[in-house]
Design brief:
Elements: E1 10-12, E2 15-19, H1 22-33, H2 38-52, E3 62-69, E4 74-80, H3 90-95, H4 114-125, H5 130-133, H6 135-143, E5 145-146, H7 149-156, H8 159-162, E6 183-184, H9 187-205, H10 207-219, H11 226-230, E7 235-237, E8 240-244, E9 247-251, H12 258-268, H13 273-276, H14 281-301, H15 312-315, H16 318-325, E10 349-355, E11 360-366, E12 375-377, E13 382-384, E14 414-418, E15 421-429, H17 433-446, H18 452-457, E16 461-463, E17 468-471, H19 476-484, E18 489-492, E19 505-511, E20 518-522, E21 529-532
Parallel strand pairs: 17-18
Antiparallel strand pairs: 1-20, 2-10, 2-21, 3-4, 3-11, 4-7, 5-6, 8-9, 9-14, 10-11, 12-13, 14-15, 15-19, 16-17, 19-20
Helix pairs in contact: 1-2, 2-6, 6-9, 9-10, 12-14, 12-16, 12-17
Length: 533
């Protein structure tokens, strides 16, 4: 059972880019055709997405990436996420009457990490200057671009959020959201991107732009200061991985939730998912239960390792997975899911790019909810993200809000290798859909032998705190079976936006190491495409 995309897998040899908006995919492809590598292409595409898909992403947000160096046969991870203002405290929020973290507004804003992440990534893994790679984005922001279908649909639901402050008009067209096919210009964003192109990250984190960001946040009652921006840094980190039936699956380490995807894979590895069949009640049941267990652990333990002990190694161990797997009853859903005991103390965009030399960049980039915090820094076109909303106000929790700390992060790029060769460069956008999207795509490919586009077309599930949402089109018999096992099921359509991230937005490139042939697939529930040459 598939989402009827009528798309076939895209094939090429010299390079490929897959992302959620065609103009961004083409910008990355042009970089590859000009001799740039996969990292160069990813940054060019990311910058264009800031312009053409500002609902979901921008330089007021964060980024993460995994980079495959084909010559060295190595994987690197970069954490381009920002931290809370140094003066942030739970007590200050409680004094204003908050009992849970605000999900929008000034108290949800953390330092934007994307620009420094771009620059750090390019400095070590790129071949082209950022000044050149940002030119397509600047051109679209200045000259305008026609707004694509799904993005227009998302934009239309954000008029009230953007209309709360005058600066929100920078993201509207004559006071309203642009409609499908209308040409949108964002000149203030063009000027900001020009400043970054000319001055690098220093132009963003110091000087006039940083002063505007800090002053605006303080004007709205926040505590971010210019020093919070000046002292921001990105970090190269050791990627984490697990072996799933001979495929080595790679993720960025915490503060990201990639560990949940790997733990879920470890759990389901002990079941005969292939023998259960694709999209059968048994397969759905076991994947859902594994994901529930992995989320319970992620929500308990994932935090900023610089501020809390995160037992990543134990969460990824096969022994730990076996203990968690033993909790799964093949015939009955768990009524509640406790986190495992260890011994130690709204939408998003994604870019997959692979160059002709076999290097890959799995790049994810987001302002979290649609238009993030809802705050647009006046005169800059910078939409500030709301990542701070993912902190906890429980002082005893590993992810508790304190100053200068990174929050639990939902955005996770994925990479997979096989026999020490690149196998997949992939990601699935959509908040808490992401690790369960990684699980479903990987089992579709490895267990059920789907080709890349089939793996993305296959109908999905989403585990939420309250229930399990299934994509419309499934047989009523499957739904009845899962309800009979005790799952709280609802069925929703593929474009539903009532839950954060919907059914996700996957992009995937597979590489044949013997022939160099690239096989690309793009999310059929989004506007994007895979392009190659």
């Amino acid at each position: 059972m598939y989402f009827d995309s009528r798309r076939s897998t895209v094939l090429a040899k010299h390079g490929m880019v897959a992302t959620s908006q065609p103009l961004a995919a083409v910008a990355g492809m042009q970089v590859l055709m000009q001799g740039g590598n996969a990292v160069d292409a990813a940054v060019a595409s990311a910058a264009v997405l800031n312009v053409v898909e500002p609902v979901s992403t921008g330089i007021g947000g964060d980024m993460f990436a995994l980079v495959w160096n084909n010559r060295e046969k190595s994987v690197r991870a970069i954490n381009g996420s920002g931290r809370s203002p140094k003066a942030a405290t739970i007590g200050a929020l409680e004094a204003e009457g908050h009992r849970t973290m605000p999900q929008a507004g000034v108290h949800s804003v953390t330092v934007p990490g994307a620009v420094h992440g771009w620059e750090t990534l390019l400095a070590e893994c790129g071949t082209m200057p950022m000044s050149e790679l940002l030119q397509p984005a600047i051109r679209y922001a200045d000259e305008g671009f026609p707004v694509s279908d799904i993005i227009a649909f998302q934009w239309a639901g954000q008029e009230e959020k953007l209309g709360r402050l005058p600066s929100g008009q920078e993201m509207l067209l004559n006071g309203r959201a642009p409609k499908h096919g209308e040409v949108m210009q964002i000149p203030t964003l063009a000027r900001t991107l020009e400043a970054v192109a000319e001055g690098g990250s220093e132009a963003f984190y110091t000087g006039e732009i940083a002063e505007k960001i800090a002053a605006f946040i303080q004007e709205q009652g926040g505590c971010m200061e210019t020093d919070d921006l000046v002292t921001h840094s990105s970090d190269w980190e050791e990627p984490i991985s697990t072996d799933y039936r001979g495929v080595k699956c790679w993720e960025c380490p915490p503060n990201g939730q990639g560990v949940a995807a790997l733990e879920a894979l470890n759990i389901v590895e002990g079941f005969d998912i292939a023998g259960m069949g694709s999209q059968t009640p048994d397969t759905y049941h076991h994947l859902i239960e594994a994901m529930r267990l992995a989320f319970a652990d992620a929500f308990q333990y994932v935090a900023d390792p610089g501020h809390a002990h995160v037992p990543t190694a134990e969460l990824l161990s096969k022994d730990f997975a076996a203990k968690r797997r033993a909790m799964i009853d093949s015939h009955k859903a768990m009524k509640s899911v406790p986190y495992g005991k260890v011994h130690g103390g709204s939408d998003t965009v994604y870019i997959s790019s692979v160059d002709g030399d076999g290097n890959a960049c799995s790049f994810i980039y987001s302002i979290y909810s649609n238009f993030g915090s809802g705050l647009v820094v006046p005169g800059t076109g910078i939409v500030l993200h709301n990542r701070g909303g993912l902190f906890s106000m429980d002082r005893d929790h590993a992810n508790a809000l304190t100053g200068g700390k990174r929050p639990y992060h939902t955005i996770i790029p994925g990479l997979a290798t096989k026999d020490n060769e690149l196998y997949l460069c992939y990601g699935v956008m959509g908040a808490f859909m992401q690790p369960q999207g990684h699980l479903q795509v990987m089992t579709n490919l490895v267990d059920h032998g789907m080709d890349p586009q089939q793996a993305l077309n296959a109908l999905r599930f989403i585990v939420t705190e309250e229930d399990v949402a299934l994509e419309e089109g499934l047989s009523p018999d499957i739904i009845a079976d899962l309800k009979g096992r005790g799952h709280n099921i609802r069925t929703i359509d593929s474009y539903y936006r009532g839950l954060s991230g919907g059914f996700g937005g996957a992009q995937l490139i597979q590489r044949d190491p013997d022939t160099g042939v690239l096989r690309g697939a793009s999310e059929p529930r989004k506007d994007g495409c895979a392009v190659g040459w």
